[in-house]
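> forwarded from #structure-qc
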């Protein structure tokens, strides 16, 4: 299996080319870092310094792709360069390799290299001075610090700034993502709320219109048709008025508030009277104390939807609406005769039960709806809607009641 070398970055290619050409220029004019007669120069002549120069320039190609390898090979090349007259270009390129090893290398290398170069700088300062006891010996430590510790520290500082900037960018992206998720959830919740309001306000009237229009068309009786048309007109006018109010709320942008003239439990009597006008035999038995506005609205809408379902699906018989406020909760029950009807008197979508369950869930209450046996022991069945809503506002103990 062939070993694929990492492809060098374009900037690294230009850096290697600039270092190599600069070194060749210094070599051409005979400028080295040390005189040829120094004792440390073991490889005399001008040609030996070209090999470390070429190797260091080659390491520059890997400063980003393989920074640790480039630094290791560059260190060996710099060591070989100290045995020759030396090239300033080799030293400058080595400082760049040290900087790149900290900046682009693994996190472990980025932490260790500044410590290692710092210790080497201290050792290169103290040991020569302790041996030779001359101030000039301190320059060795200064040179080691400039070549190794300074670029390593610079690379660490730049890396920390980059990581901090990346972390800040990531946090900003996460914040934007969370904000978008919150916005989407808010839009979805608002759409569900408006759908419940639209269904609860209009479905009752449209169901009554559908039922009485069917009666007016099927019965050849002028008085019955006139009564049916009267009910149709009343429900159409009321439904149109509520639709206009809802549309006005949407146009005004008041989507964070309940509609004006929000229904309350005090309007249950009128709601029951309207159900009676539509042909239901309804009895209301309600006793409750102080109830918060959200609970009042939810209870009103649940009763409204239960009466609408009874109008469409219930068999002939008594429909009972029962409310009790006690022990910090508002208990609600609506019962209607179940069975005995081949088809509903008006079509339904099934969204009513979903809406009631959602309203109760938003208030952390409990909801049940389904058929049950009649409590009097007869064979008849009842369709029972039960809801238990928590009441948190109990400052007012004055009870209000309504029984019809």
């Amino acid at each position: 299996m062939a070993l694929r070398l990492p492809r060098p970055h374009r900037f690294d290619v230009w850096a290697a080319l600039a270092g190599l050409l600069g070194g060749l220029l210094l070599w051409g004019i005979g400028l080295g870092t040390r005189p040829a007669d120094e004792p440390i120069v073991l490889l005399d002549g001008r040609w030996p310094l070209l090999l470390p120069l070429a190797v260091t320039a080659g390491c520059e190609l890997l400063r980003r792709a393989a920074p640790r390898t480039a630094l290791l090979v560059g260190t060996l090349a710099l060591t070989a360069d100290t045995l020759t007259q030396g090239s300033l270009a080799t030293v400058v390129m080595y400082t760049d390799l040290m900087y790149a090893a900290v900046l682009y290398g693994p996190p472990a290398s980025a932490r260790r290299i500044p410590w290692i170069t710092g210790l080497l700088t201290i050792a290169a300062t103290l040991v020569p001075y302790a041996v030779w006891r001359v101030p000039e010996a301190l320059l060795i430590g200064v040179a080691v610090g400039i070549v190794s510790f300074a670029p390593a520290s610079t690379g660490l500082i730049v890396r920390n700034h980059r990581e901090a900037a990346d972390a800040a960018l990531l946090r900003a992206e996460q914040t934007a993502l969370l904000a978008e998720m919150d916005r989407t959830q808010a839009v979805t919740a608002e759409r569900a709320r408006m759908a419940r309001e639209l269904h609860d306000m209009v479905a009752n009237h449209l169901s009554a219109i559908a039922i009485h229009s069917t009666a007016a068309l099927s019965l050849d009786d002028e008085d019955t048709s006139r009564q049916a048309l009267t009910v149709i007109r009343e429900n159409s006018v009321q439904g149109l008025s509520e639709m206009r109010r809802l549309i006005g709320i949407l146009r005004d942008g008041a989507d964070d508030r309940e509609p004006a003239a929000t229904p309350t439990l005090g309007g249950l009597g009128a709601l029951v009277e309207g159900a009676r006008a539509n042909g239901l035999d309804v009895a209301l038995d309600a006793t409750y104390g102080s109830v918060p506005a959200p609970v009042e609205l939810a209870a009103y809408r649940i009763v409204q939807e239960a009466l609408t379902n009874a109008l469409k699906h219930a068999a002939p018989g008594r429909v009972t609406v029962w409310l009790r406020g006690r022990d910090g909760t508002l208990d609600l029950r609506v019962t209607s005769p179940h069975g005995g009807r081949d088809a509903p008197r008006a079509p339904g979508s099934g969204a009513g039960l979903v809406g009631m369950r959602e309203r109760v869930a938003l208030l952390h209450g409990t909801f049940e709806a389904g058929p049950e046996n009649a409590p009097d022991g007869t064979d008849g069945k009842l369709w029972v809607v039960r809801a238990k809503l928590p009441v948190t506002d109990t400052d007012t103990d004055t009870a209000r009641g309504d029984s019809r």
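QC bot note: The chain has a mean pLDDT of 82. The two ends are 92 Å apart (CA to CA).
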